[in-house]
Design goal:
With 376 residues, this protein is α/β, with parallel strands linked by helices. It has 12 helices and 14 strands.
Amino acid sequence: MSIATEEDRHWMRLALAEAARGLGAVEPNPMVGAVIVREGTLVSVGHHGRYGGPHAEVVALQAAGEAARGATLYVTLEPCCHVGKTPPCTEAVLAAGVSKVVAAMRDPFPRVDGGGFARLAAAGLGVVSGVEEAEARALNAPYLKRLALGRPFVTAKWAMTLDGKTACRSGDSKWISNPRSRGVVHALRGRMDGILVGIGTVFLDDPELTARPSGPRCPARIVLDSTARLPLDSKLAQTARSVPVWLMVSGAAPPDRVQALRRLGVEPIVVGERGPVPVPEVLDELGRRGLTNLLVEGGGRVLGAFLDAGEVDAVEVFIAPTLEGGSHAYSPFRGEGVARMAEAIRLARHRVSVLDGDVMLSGQIVRPWWRASDDA
């Protein structure tokens, strides 16, 4: 395969921006963007806009029409070569008369995994891959985790004061962050397949765990509650017939409590025999249920359990310019933690923004299943 040029990288960055427009609408499919260029001039762009809809290459090719003949197609993921919900993109590329394909990364999906590149190359097209691969893999980290491990991508979210408190000593936390930050959180919720909290958070806040206004997805509400203590009059239990509530219980949960919650529409799911429900088994079950993105909102013990299990993949943190003081235990992560600072987890690809005075910090944690070859 040929060597990429700076021009290739320029157009691929545009394709990546186009791909990101599918965020929250295409899962469990990957986000994909495509750009068609002819003699150094942009002809058309396209992205995969919804699950089951046309792929990015097809959208861009249809927009280009005859101008695609002899042009270069830039695409963020290897074109598919199999029949799924849509016909193979490789055949659409060949029929359009494109002369060269530049891709960011190979698609590890077993029915593609290099086959798309092989089909195009065998037909005489120039094929380049690995252009801006690290960015493409970071963009589709949730898709890559689902393929590699069968588990959803976990984003940990919390709001805290400047001195690291997630609530006052009484447990009151309304509100640490400002209205604009909370609006961002609701938009984030609307892109998720599931929102998870522990039963302690339910006792303290009686949350709804919905996106307001609603987003492209309607996430299941998930509670870690080993002994089925979810109050029957809680907002979650009372709205379970409208929006799914999955209660992760252990085999030790009292049958009468389980049945009472089931009658309200709550779905109890047994994970583990007794004691705190194990994080890896929870994620395995959620993966089997088709979740790609999971938002974990707390509390500190739950977030700590995910971190100790090595299952926090990204963070969304909102830091308010307020000071609380005190030495109580309301902090974001309360698990085992690390013994030495050298062992602390560092974020990659982090970004910082200011929302009406709150500081929002977002970042990913590099994992082997999405690391690109040039990240090694």
